[in-house]
């Protein structure tokens, strides 16, 4: 997991910054975006290896962000974060090309395992 | 597109579901923060093993309470969504499980445990999910009046044949002494009101011999499928 480039997209800044710090402790390069527009800008500036994307955000929804990511970067893996009322969006997101979805609160080990599997599955694919 | 709530129950459900969702976000932040402290402690070189151990124990309690809070918020959210549709397919296995959880605290205050005993197959009726939960809750409340402490009330749905389904309430852990101390469920103060409420949902209450207590039977021709 050393050096994995992860982009966390979540409007809950305290959640995203804490999770980013935990991923950095484990050797990853974690960046954050607080909304869809910022996420798309960061992806275009410096392509991450994976995006962790909250489905429920003000403004552009997570699913809308996912659709836009998949237009320019069809092989960039995206893991969605859902809540209890948004598992439907998680399933819909997988139909739209998300690698998988996880429910908040997360188990860090589960997230890391999922990131590893996603990166392995897209190894060699153009992003 | 989310539909606007049409009734007070739907409005209350909508708000409750939204707050429960936010509660999970709060718990997610607490969980990650506790996790980060744990991570920092593990890599810290200037903290004594004893202090690390104390922190670790306290953080583990925080994590456990977060899990408990998540479970409560999830149940609350599920309950809130039960007012989404006035009439829909209801699996009584899920409803029994949900109501046993929701009434747990009420039962605990009387020293009684509740246990959902699901059927092997789904037991589906078409009805108002909120009212079905209210009926089961009222059944439990009336039983708590007549059942002594230390016992467990099992709540088990079953298919009763002739397109009827039933939810049975029975006691476990009962011996001859406690059996003598239990009055019949029809001795509860609200029994008549409960029967009337059940009738409104096309159901009848059938009193059984102990250790079974009674069954709520959804009769043929009522709003169940």
Brief sketch in words of this structure:
The complex is a heterodimer of chains A (127) and B (225). Chain A is an alpha/beta fold. Chain A has helices at residues 13-25, 36-45, 62-72, 87-95, 108-121; strands at residues 5-9, 29-33, 50-54, 78-82, 100-103.
Rg over alpha carbons of chain A: 13 Å
Number of domains of chain A: 1
**Regions with little confidence, pLDDT below 50 for 5+ residues of chain B:** none
Any idea how many domains of chain B? 2
Structural class of chain A: alpha/beta
Distance between the termini of chain A: 19 Å
Supply the CATH architecture of chain A. 3-Layer(aba) Sandwich
Question: How would you portray this structure in words?
Answer:
The complex is a heterodimer of chains A (127) and B (225). With 127 residues, chain A is α/β, with parallel strands linked by helices. Chain A contains five helices and five strands, in the order E-H-E-H-E-H-E-H-E-H. Chain A has helices at 13-25, 36-45, 62-72, 87-95, 108-121, and strands spanning 5-9, 29-33, 50-54, 78-82, 100-103. In chain A, helix 2 (36-45) runs parallel beside helix 3 (62-72). Chain A is globular, with a radius of gyration of 13 Å. Chain B is α+β, with helices and mostly antiparallel strands. Chain B is built from seven helices and seven strands; from the N terminus they run H-H-E-H-H-E-E-H-E-E-H-H-E-E. Chain B has helices spanning 8-43, 49-81, 92-102, 104-109, 129-146, 176-181, 191-200; strands spanning 88-91, 113-116, 124-127, 152-161, 164-172, 203-207, 212-218. Chain B has a five-stranded mixed beta sheet. A two-stranded antiparallel sheet of chain B has the order 1-3. Chain B starts with 7 loop residues before the first helix and ends in a 7-residue tail after the last strand. Classes of the chains: A alpha/beta (127), B alpha+beta (225). The interface between A and B is medium-sized, with 16 and 24 residues.
């Amino acid at each position: 997991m050393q050096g994995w480039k992860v982009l966390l997209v979540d409007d809950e800044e305290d959640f995203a910054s804490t999770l980013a710090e935990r991923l950095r402790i484990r050797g990853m390069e974690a960046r954050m975006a607080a909304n869809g527009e910022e996420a798309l800008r960061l992806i275009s500036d410096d392509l991450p290896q994976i995006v962790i994307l909250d489905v429920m955000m003000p403004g552009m929804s997570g699913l809308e962000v996912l659709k836009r990511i998949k237009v320019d970067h069809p092989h960039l893996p995206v893991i969605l974060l859902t809540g209890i009322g948004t598992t439907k969006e998680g399933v819909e997101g997988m139909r739209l090309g998300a690698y998988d979805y996880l429910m908040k609160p997360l188990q860090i080990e589960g997230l890391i395992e999922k990131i590893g599997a996603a990166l392995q599955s897209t190894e060699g694919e153009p992003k | 597109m989310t539909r606007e709530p049409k009734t007070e129950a739907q409005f209350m459900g909508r708000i409750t579901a939204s707050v429960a969702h936010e509660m999970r976000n709060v718990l997610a932040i607490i969980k990650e923060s506790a996790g980060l402290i744990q991570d920092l402690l593990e890599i810290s070189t200037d903290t004594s093993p004893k202090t690390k151990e104390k922190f670790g124990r306290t953080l583990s309690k925080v994590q456990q309470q977060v899990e408990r809070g998540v479970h409560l918020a999830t149940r609350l959210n599920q309950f809130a969504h039960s007012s989404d549709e006035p009439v829909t397919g209801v699996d009584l296995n899920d409803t029994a499980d949900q109501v046993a959880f929701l009434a747990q605290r009420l039962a605990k205050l009387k020293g009684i445990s509740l246990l959902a005993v699901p059927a092997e197959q789904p037991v589906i009726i078409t009805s108002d999910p909120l009212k079905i939960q209210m009926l089961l809750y009222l059944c439990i409340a009336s039983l708590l009046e007549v059942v002594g402490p230390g016992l467990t009330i099992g709540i088990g749905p079953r298919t009763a044949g002739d397109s009827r389904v039933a939810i049975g309430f029975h006691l476990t852990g009962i011996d001859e002494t406690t059996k003598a101390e239990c009055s019949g469920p029809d001795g509860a103060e609200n029994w008549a009101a409960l029967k009337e409420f059940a009738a409104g949902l096309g159901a009848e209450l059938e009193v059984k011999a102990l250790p079974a207590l009674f069954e709520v039977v959804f009769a043929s021709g009522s709003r169940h499928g």
